[in-house]
Write the structure tokens for this entry.
Amino acid sequence: MHIIQTADGQHARLETQKQPLPWGILATLVWLFLALVVSAVMAVAVGASLGQLSREVANRYDGVLVTVGTLTSVPIEVALLAVAARLRRWPAANYLALNVPRRCDAVVAVFCAIALVAVFDALLVLTGNDIVTPFQMESYHSAVEAGWLPLLFLAVVIFAPVGEEIAFRGFLYRGLVRHCHEIHAIIIVSLVWSLLHIQYNWIGVAQIFLFGLLFGWFRWTSGSTTVTILMHVVVNLEAMIETIIKMEVVS
């Protein structure tokens, strides 16, 4: 038996009794960096080739480029991390905690994600900030102009959550909890994840960090990255809906 899933936060320690140890911190960081760089290079290559078929846009928030980059990079990134897990003699799904979560965990997690979104939106409104960021508006507008809106929706709502959660709450978290307490791993993963979202201002990065803490908590208590993928999908879906309302109804 490769996996023992519990609800008391002890799953990581129990798993290591049944199979080889996860990668150490340095090896984990190297593998993650390699996966991110290789997938990014491939995304740039595909984007460059498709640039001959669509209008050239100098805007880094161009929806077509965001879509191509996400749809290209995520499968490559996930595949490389799965290879890393297999090289450590783990089933990839087990290493990345891609299991079927308990229904109560999934339901509570989704409701908590929705509640945190509502709190953040209320705070933004009360402080006079826009709920929809320039990145969201510009990528949406350019995707609509190019006829790529359905693919942008797929990239943002499905592919991005899957790729980011597998990389951070799946692979990076697994390597960190081998050497540090789960709470410390949650904080480190959330910090790294939030700082990579350079398309947002400091308010957006702070929100992402807090979302990361919530996602990490459920990763720990449920023993499932699948739960955090569901939460991330809900958050990104809400962001897309708000963007559509802003661009098509309010504007």
About this structure: Confidence is low (pLDDT under 50) at residues 1-16. Residues 11-250 form one domain.
